[in-house]
Structure prediction request, 200 residues.
Amino acid sequence: MRTMLCAAGLIGWVASAVAAAPDDGWRAVAHDYHEPMIDQALPRAKAMLERIEATAYGREEVPKVKALLEAQSVAKGIDAIVGQWRCASTQIDPSGVFAYPPFKCEISLTEDGTLSFRKTTGSQRRNGQLWPADNGSYVLLGGSSVNNDPYRSYSATYEYADGEDVEADTVGLLETLKDGRMRMVLDADEERVELYTLTR
Prediction:
């Protein structure tokens, strides 16, 4: 199910939801196997970075990525994160660290009060709902697509989902950093992770 709220009351609702039980919303929707990808997003990303060998591709990116993962997060309200962003992607897997230039992303508040994230340029797209979580962070439950394929939603929001829908799911943890950037840790399994660095 999805939370339907009027836009005028969303900011107050988020504040009370985070104080009371911030995980109730997204956990009620997320597939069980996606919860560790969110709960352990940062530790998994850090562990993968530590395993990058000296001869691996993109080894020179490691200090910058390590600084991003270790940067302290701060709580920010909805009004501070809504708008247009530049999202620089970094992918980490056993073969190395692969950094890409920024693409366009946006965080918006829909008419029904849903907070959403969308990567709008580049060959790999993401689209989904942002749910309030611990310490002022947000959880992304969404879907991925490529090129000009239609944007996808999270499979658990479909009345009927097939294997292709589930395979296209994407989940992540979004945090605001002290310097005004945002950090999104995406699809953190045991072998690979993708990071977005969001800047204005």
Observations:
- The helical segments are 10-20, 24-29, 35-39, 41-50, 62-70, 78-81, 163-167.
- Residues 69 and 174 are 12 Å apart (CA to CA).
